[in-house]
């Protein structure tokens, strides 16, 4: 029986990539989106790609970051799916290689129990181009999942993970139920549930 469900945020619980929305404000959307795609497909190291993308955001007003983070388009079925999982007694957590401005804001709207993500450094009201946090590396999600399982007393058999990109691979290694949601090929190869429709409620039909 499942006791823990961990979801990625960008392109999983949210329909898009938060950093790409930020980049659009600076007119560099295409450049940043290209790096994002390379990283999510496993062709670029996640840590290096995150650093280079955030560096490109230097100078963006933090108030703009907050406004965008609070107006993101959530994935179809996200709220209903989380509510149903919690009704079944499952703890629901969000792991994101993206940013706390988005994941912490979405927590109460979507209903998950906790979020682990990264923080954009800002000074004098503007982004400095620096970033730090819980989810900086390719191994971060798997590392955090094992810690969470140990704290909660949950086994791999009792764990569901859901994501779309290469930086979700590390958590796939520690869960029996592995959902690739509208995912890159590199992740689909490791999944045992594949959903190619933008509707998270499809997960409920499979578990």
The proportion of residues forming helix, as a percent range, comes to: 25-40%
Taken together, the total number of domains comes to: 1
User: What would the average pLDDT be, to the nearest integer?
Assistant: 96
The shape, in one word, is: globular
Alpha-carbon Rg, integer: 16 Å
Number of strands: 7
CATH topology: Rossmann fold
CATH top-level class: Alpha Beta
The oligomerization state is single chain
Largest beta sheet: strand ordering: 4-3-2-1-5-6-7
* CATH homologous superfamily (4th level) name: HAD superfamily/HAD-like
Structural class designation: alpha/beta
Number of helices: 9
Instruction: State the end-to-end distance.
Output: 9 Å
Which architecture name does CATH use? 3-Layer(aba) Sandwich
> What is the makeup of the main sheet?
7 strands, mixed
Order of helices and strands: EHHHHHEHEEHEHEHE
Strand percentage lies at 15-25%
Residue stretches low in confidence (pLDDT < 50, at least 5 long) are none
């Amino acid at each position: 029986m499942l006791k823990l469900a961990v979801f990625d945020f960008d392109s999983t619980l949210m329909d898009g990539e938060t950093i790409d929305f930020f980049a659009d404000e600076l007119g560099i959307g295409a450049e940043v989106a290209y790096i994002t795609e390379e990283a999510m497909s496993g062709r670029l190291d996640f840590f290096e790609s995150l650093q280079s993308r955030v560096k490109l955001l230097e100078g963006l007003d933090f108030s703009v970051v907050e406004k965008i983070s609070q107006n993101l388009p959530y994935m179809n079925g996200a709220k209903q799916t989380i509510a149903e999982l919690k009704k079944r007694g499952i703890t629901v957590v969000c792991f994101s290689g993206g940013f706390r401005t988005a994941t912490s804001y979405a927590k109460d709207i979507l209903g998950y129990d906790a979020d682990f993500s990264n923080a954009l450094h800002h000074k004098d009201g503007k982004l400095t181009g620096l970033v730090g946090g819980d989810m900086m590396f390719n191994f971060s999600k798997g590392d955090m999942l094992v810690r969470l399982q140990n704290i909660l007393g949950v086994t791999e058999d009792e764990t569901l993970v859901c994501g779309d990109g290469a930086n979700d691979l590390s958590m796939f290694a520690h869960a029996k139920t592995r959902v690739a949601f509208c995912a890159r090929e590199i992740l689909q190869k490791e999944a045992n549930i594949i959903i190619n429709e933008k509707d998270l409620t499809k997960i409920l039909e499979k578990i």
